[in-house]
Write a structure and sequence with these properties.
The protein has 207 residues and is an alpha/beta fold. It is built from nine helices and ten strands.
Amino acid sequence: MNNSYKSIGLFIDGGYYAKVNEALESLMGLNVKMGALMNLIRQQVAGLCGTDMAECHITESHYFRGRYRVNNANSKHLLYSERKFEDSLIENDVVFHYKHLKEVEKGGNVTVVEKGIDVWFALEAYELSVLRKFDFVVLITGDADHEMLVRKLNALKIHTILLTWDVQEGQGTSTARLLREEACTHIELSKLVVQDGELLKKLCMAV
């Protein structure tokens, strides 16, 4: 194999990704384009390696999210938007992993419980990293619970990149400090967007 070839494993925390999109939609009427985001990742890895983008390939991409059962999703008018988003995942060869959400009522308040997704995310990312021997692993998440995953990936001598987008403070997209500190490289998209005035247009589409 060409020594300049770099394989990338991409793992997306769907809950975090959804919060980024919700913040973008609320503030600017935009959503992230999955294909454009994946191209940006390849471009950033190429920059880190000092090689051509054509030599950097996302060889595995996985998306993890909790979602409602079909009857609940239908009553909440979510089926169309969920299917539309899944189409974008399929078009970009992203494997999606779902577990059912649960609604728990306590004291008159309903809480949505997303159980087991973080553990599944971490186990899948670690196992595939061991098997596929990625050169780079990109994690799209802001959750402090993934700190130990990053440590384990570092122990495998895999360059771990944390990719985040703190769209606006208070919008639920901030990144845990310990997670930032553990990653080999932290790419904060809000900073890149400020540096490159055209990047937002490339990354996003109108809702």
